[in-house]
Amino acid sequence: MIISDKLKIYLLNKIKSKILFDEPMRNHTTIRVGGSCAMFFEPNIIIELLEIIKFLNEKKIKFYVIGNGSNLLVDDLGFDGAIIKINKNFEKNNIEIKNETIICSAGILLPKISKIAYENNLSGFEFACGIPGTVGGSVCMNAGAYDSEMKNVVFSCDIFDTNDNEIKIFNNKELNFDYRSSIISEKYIILCAKFKLFFKNNKEEIKKTMTDFNNKRKNKQPIEFPSAGSIFKRPKGFYVGKLIQDAGLAGFTIGGAQISKKHCGFMINIGNATAQNFLDLIELTKKIISNRFGVKLQTEIKYLKK
């Protein structure tokens, strides 16, 4: 998609939020790969977000909404459309605490919510203290760790429906949570979420649980390398990391993409990896695991292409 100078000037004058053109997506994913998108927007408030979507719909330009890019693999050829990033400053980083609930804007990172919950003697969000995703992205994919997930703490979400341009409220049941999925798709954009937690008198118990989880993450996950977190969904009755380890694939490398020796459920960027390196490594792993154990692996990460 070629953006004319005339259109660039028009956009820069019309849209108040940050706009970039031909922006490399490796700068916006935790795996640090990906080609460029035609347009890149970072709205600060809901009104700006709605203006951007209205413009894109009028011009029939496809778009994709991201948070921290922690579960995203963008093709080397990039994305021939617009990326809208809901960042940590969206809606002024708004967080409100009412009794046992936390209401927050979609761009806030989960570790921050975990910390605020702890500071207010609220338990239930400890599992998310090390997940590097935003509220919006994590609710969308029902992110989880240590035997808990977002569906256990989400009370409701304010979403923008791009089909009819209306803001709606979905409760927990209406979000239709499933394993690493929810009803939220490209047509819905999460604006804010309300989390229902519970009060715990012993604040130090909350802190201890968070510390234990963070230590486990440091010791067992390759957080020192760029990655997209867990590549595959957990197949029923199996652990992905063990399957890959037992297949002898620990440390297997294609280009700059490597199956982590520390945790075989992770694929890491050891330097100058391409999206194709990861795609090839994913397909090879799926084939070997299927042939060896008869288990069909499904990817957890989102793949965005031209």
List keywords for this structure.
306 residues, alpha+beta, Uridine Diphospho-n-acetylenolpyruvylglucosamine Reductase, domain 3, Uridine Diphospho-n-acetylenolpyruvylglucosamine Reductase, domain 1, four-stranded mixed β-sheet
Q: What is the mean predicted local confidence, pLDDT?
A: 95
Q: What about the largest sheet?
A: 5 strands, antiparallel
Task: State Rg.
Answer: 20 Å
The level-1 CATH class of the largest domain? Alpha Beta
Helix fraction by DSSP (H/I, runs of at least 4):
25-40%
CATH topology annotation of the largest domain: Uridine Diphospho-n-acetylenolpyruvylglucosamine Reductase, domain 3
Structure characterization notes:
The chain is an alpha+beta fold. The protein has 3 domains: 81 residues, Uridine Diphospho-n-acetylenolpyruvylglucosamine Reductase, domain 2, CATH 3.30.43; 113 residues, Uridine Diphospho-n-acetylenolpyruvylglucosamine Reductase, domain 3, CATH 3.30.465; 83 residues, UDP-N-acetylenolpyruvoylglucosamine reductase, C-terminal domain (Uridine Diphospho-n-acetylenolpyruvylglucosamine Reductase, domain 1, Alpha-Beta Complex), CATH 3.90.78. 27% of the residues lie in helices and 27% in strands. It has 7 helices and 19 strands. The strands form 6 sheets. The chain has a 5-stranded antiparallel sheet. A 4-stranded mixed sheet has the order 1-2-5-3, with helices on one face. A 4-stranded antiparallel sheet has the order 15-18-17-16. A hairpin with a 6-residue loop joins strand 17 and strand 18. The longest helix is centred in the C-terminal third of the chain and has 19 residues. It is globular.
